[in-house]
Design goal:
Structural class: alpha+beta
Number of strands: 8
Number of domains: 3
Distance between the termini: 49 Å
CATH superfamily of the largest domain: DNA integrity scanning linker region
CATH topology of the largest domain: Ferritin
Radius of gyration: 27 Å
CATH class of the largest domain: Mainly Alpha
Largest sheet: 8 strands, mixed
Amino acid sequence: MPSSYDALLKDTLLRTAPGTALREGLERILRGRTGALIVLGESKKVSEVSTGGFLIHTEFSAARLRELAKMDGGIVLNKDATMIHSAAVHFMPDSTIEAIESGTRHRTAERMSVDTGFPVIAVSASMNIIALFINGHRYSLDRTELILERANQALNTLERYRERLESVMQHLSTQEIEASVSLRDVATAVQRQEMVRRIVGEISTYALELGTEGRLVTLQLEELASGTEGNTELLLRDYAGILPAERASSSAASDLPDFVSDDTLEEGGVIQAQLAALASLSNAQLVDLAEVAAILGVHEGLESLDDLVEPRGHRLLSQMRNVPKTVSDRIVEHFGGLQSLLAASIEELMEVEGVGGHRARIVRETLSRMAEINFYDRH
């Protein structure tokens, strides 16, 4: 789904979360078993597809929403749900808009969300559910206790995935220092990062739905997600588009994914395209390391997950707080690969613009310490 959907869904979940006046009004409607059809936004387009009813232009309250829902027809609020614009309105969205819903109220809500671009809420008395329709997509609002249960299950899953991710990243760091990184190692690290990102996103949605009830979930999520942000981008900067040296032929490079082989794209554009490609993978595709490796830009016809590849060094340098990103980028560009960087002397590091004697010693000592820790851990 497009990013506009995600942004609008997030905004709507905030407005309908437990503890808000709108959610209280929706809960009252459910308890009264009357049902409702509510458009969250007023515009010329909404007026064009509406008929009948009457203008109210009054401040929103849960009690007023409940009373207005007793009448036939729909209700129009402003987009912030702070004002009630009109009630008892008959909505007539474009009938040619494809709809998959079967009930009259839900079909109208689905089409109105597409035709107007505003979120539409359908409250079903018979099914006892509240459904959001955003750009034609349906999202059901569940009871708070059910959301809490799902959030806690997801938090437990995230904790296990986080532990596995840390193990995978530690293994990758070891292999990088020993110059024995395989494509499988990189694809596994990218895969695990994406899995964690998806679970974090799922829990974030639960926290939004919970509103004031989700503070503990949010605190736990922040703790478990800390330190995972941006790691996928660093991995892609280190490995994207890399072919094993003996196979980096022009014919292979010509068959790389378009976003890797496109010379008109700067590195940032390539990385963003690859992040989007990762996000678009289905769960079944994500567990296939070959699918993940293909996004890195490795030629499919020559690809072997056991091929050795060399990182550029972005990820390890990012762990040095005293080295700004612009300087670390120059270091990577100067040395071309992590092994050359690991072998560099202080004098050679000082040849890089922005790296003086003090910073060169920090880089040299930090890299040496990483290598020593790796040696002792291995032996």
